[in-house]
Amino acid sequence: MAAFPAKAPTLQKTGALKYVKRYWTLYLLLLLPIAYFALFRYFPMQYIQLAFKKYMIMIDGVKVNVWQMPWVDPWFDHFKTAFANKDFWNALKNTLILNGLDLVVGFPAPILLALLLNELTFKKFKRVTQTIAYMPHFLSWVIIYGLALQLFAPSTGLVNDLIRALGGGGIDFLNNKTWWVFTYVILGVWQSIGWNTIIYLAAITGISPELYEAAAVDGAGRFRKMWHVTLPGIRPTIVVLLIMQIGRIVGGDFDRPFAMTNKLVTDVSTVIPIFTYNYGILANKYGLATAVGLFQSVVCVIFLLASNKLAEKFGERGIW
Amino acid sequence: MKRTISILLIVALFAVLLAACDGEPAATSNDPTATPPVTSTAPTAPPPTLLDELGLDTDLKFTETRSITVEVFDRGQDAGKTKPEDSYYSKWIQEQVLATHHIDVTFTPIDRWGEADLIGPLLAGGDAPDVCVTYNKGAIDQYAAQGGVVELAQYLDTDDYKGLLPNLFSLLTEDNIFWDQNTDGSLYSLEGRLMNPQRINTFVREDWLTALNLTAPTNIDEFEAMLVAFKEGAATLLGSDAARMVPFSTSYDVGWRIDHLAASFVPSSAVTNDKEFYTTGFDDRHLQRANYKEAVRKLNDWYNKGLVWKDFALYPAGDTTEDDMIKSGYVGSFIHNWDYPYRSGLDGIQGALQTVKPDAAFIAVESFKDDAGNYTKFLSGPVDRKIFFPSSNEEVTASFLYLDWMATFENYNFLQIGNEGVVHEKQADGSVKVIAATNEEIQNSQYNIDYTITMNGLSLATPEATAGSIAFGYGGIDSRLISIAFAASINDGHLGRNPRFGALEAESGMDTVLKEKRDALLDQSVVASVADFDSVWDAGWADYLASGGQAIIDSRIAKWEELYGSATQLP
Fold first, then answer.
1. In the list A58, A231, B119, B333, which could disulfide-bond B147, CB 3.0-4.6 Å?
2. Residues 6+ away with beta carbon under 8 Å from B91
């Protein structure tokens, strides 16, 4: 292990090269993540061209790469095709609704749980509760849907069996469009709530205990401390995560709606990633798929920048 | 004695049907026991110059060993199944092909139930095997348009090259080889041969009929009355499990699972009129046929009367929940593949059911008559899986020779029936009785159809031997049930022919999109309230047509008129 000097020399004095040479071990460590991003994030970006090109495998018997594929005419043809498709607009609407509900219901849930966990005085119970709450995060959506079927299927689900045993008529959790959205959102909260509390709990531990002591001296009870000390203490974290979540409002998961969907609810479950999969990947229209993906990314960046600006306007630091 | 008679009967029946399949060309398309015209000509031996050019000696061995990859369907490794790319049979094929042609074969497993969706991305990524096989003809057409598939007519339409492939031409015949030829003469896929035309059957619980003193339903009213009787008799039939009663079961794939019911609602004039039949024939579930809506309305009515499994739409393809329910004895009737409950012999549905209730049996019935009084069923032509070579294939001749090897009787015969004493027992009449092998020689698919990609269905040396063997092909299952299913499946069947439309632009890439819309339309229409049925159907149907369905019908009509003018029948 290289020894670090007590005081780092400035760039002006020794030059960038010398600086890098001196800390080469640190730069070496950086290589791996840089390679990851270069290989899996930046290199594939060359295929963005497909949004404006005609996908071909061979031209005149010669295999071609993405640079050699012909441009479509007009250049926005794939976008035109996508925007003329009513399924695209339906998918966009569904994406906004499901992500919006996730934002409204799913975003505050881990904050509440973190606040509650923070109030637990019995440490062992707190740890066990936290661990149990994390667990669903490690389950794939295919498994979660399998569990959901066992619980919520109309004729054989455990929950419906219970409702019927209590004299009810059963609920179509998975095969009624409205109930499906409800189940989708609730399962999303269940799956992610524990994992998402980690960052808030970490932020809470960073709050100075003196603030709580001062609040206690001022006569604040638990709720007041939570409201006037804990929440303001984690506000920067909340704002950063909120900005990032808003940035994903048009994006979102593929596996969750894909695993949970069925033919009775496709009107509300087909989100943009599924539209892209059906129309682009399965129907072999890679140009269209890339155009929709690009549209999605651009809108996400706009939302991200706008929400960041808004946060700054209200006196928060934002994410830059 | 009864058993012997029934076996004799089934052998006789099959022999008649299969012998007819090997007969002269059929004059019309409506006889399911007749095979479409065979126009194969005997290939002549390839000239030495061609052999030199291709690097082959006179025994059709490559002078330098060539390597190819071949797709094989993977059905998972449950119930003792082996890895298809590394099994007793894959190794046998590899050894034999290497010895016969000096071709080194590597198998690439592709999920059987996802293959239609997987083949596209594999082609796009340049990872598709040299020899590909799929049911997804649309994907082949699309990739062909993008230059991603080898054009085959340039080889197969030359007499010299045909001489290399005598077995392939003999088994597939020129009809299957050129079935997919486009009107401009280009050809991108071969059609594997479907040996038996059986497709779908309607099954009911025979023991329940007996218990409720009912006869097998012969029309739709009797069928519905039977479903009601099953529901009302649940306590008698299932005792404490009465709440689990499902009089009629279906899956999310409603189109497949109401096939016979739907066919009976299609006017007979729309079936006998070739122009109408083929211009509305894009959807393999027959959604575009006239009056299809009324068949779905009937299922919707049954659903709302509580006669249909309520959870049917929730389980995806490959899920075993419905099978488990049938095995447990909760299901009274269903429509499915012609031999579905008998597959895998005693390890399958019928076998499991007998374990739960020894006298339980599913029997095939014919209950759905059309307006002409026939039990019309839509049967496909003698075509099955489509074989093609992606443009990444650099060993086209080796790939063709592999197919020719696979189309050779001795080779597919061994793959179909395996070793004597392990996979089959020879009978005195030349037929074979399949033994369900549980060791490494287990067949992952019936008759190893996943390896014998040039054909689907048993084919022994003579039609009589094949007939006798099919009767024995479902280890431990009562041959009477198989005999009835075999006959019912093709009675009044309408065999598909080839309208020779070739690849149509309007159909390009639409398979998946329209399949999704079709399934959603059907599922949502079935569960709609009776009052809402029309509005749900009409909205979904309008969406289907607007999303490409109408353009496909129009395009087919235009092509028909281009090819056949004002004629309403195929020549």
1. A58
2. none
Place of tokens 């004039």: B269
CB-nearest to A266 from B147, B244, B520 is B520
A37 CA to chain B: closest CA distance, Å? 21
Q: Which residues of A touch B244 (CB under 8 A)?
A: 156
Which residues are within 8 A (CB) of B274 and not within 5 positions of it... i.e. 6 or more apart? Answer: B29, B497, B499, B568, B569, B570
Q: Which CATH class is domain A85-313?
A: mainly alpha
Q: Is the pLDDT of residue B106 over 90?
A: yes
Please name the residues in contact with B489: beta carbons below 8 A apart, sequence gap of 6 or more. Answer: B198, B199, B200, B201, B338, B364, B377
Contacts of A63 in chain B (CB under 8 A): 126, 391-392
CB contact under 8 A, A55 and B146: yes
Q: Which CATH class is domain B200-371+498-564?
A: alpha beta
Where does chain B hold its CATH 3.40.190.10 domain(s)? Answer: 48-192+385-412, 200-371+498-564
Please indicate whether, in this complex, the C-beta atoms of B120 and A278 are within 8 angstroms of each other: no
pLDDT in tens, A92-140: 999 999 999 999 999 999 999 999 999 888 889 999 999 999 999 999 9
Residue B124 to residue A57, Cβ atoms within 8 A:
yes
Residue B32 — pLDDT band, cuts 50, 70, 90?
Answer: very low
Where does the pLDDT of residue B95 fall: very low under 50, low under 70, confident under 90, or very high at 90 and above?
Answer: very high
Residue range A152-196, pLDDT digits in tens? 999 889 999 999 999 988 899 999 999 999 999 999 999 999 999
| Strand segments (E) across B226-326 | 246-249
The boundaries of every CATH 1.10.3720.10 domain in chain A are: 85-313
Using a CB-CB cut-off of 8 Å, the residues of chain B touching A263 are: 252, 313, 519-520, 522-524
What digits encode the pLDDT tens for the residues B347-377?
Answer: 889 999 999 899 999 999 999 999 999 999 9
Inter-chain touch B310–A154, beta carbons under 8 Å: yes
- Residues in chain B closer than 8 A to A155 (CB atoms): 309-311
The CATH number of domain B48-192+385-412 is 3.40.190.10: yes
Q: How far is A154 from chain B (nearest CA, A)?
A: 6
Give CA–CA dist B17/B32, Å, rounded: 9
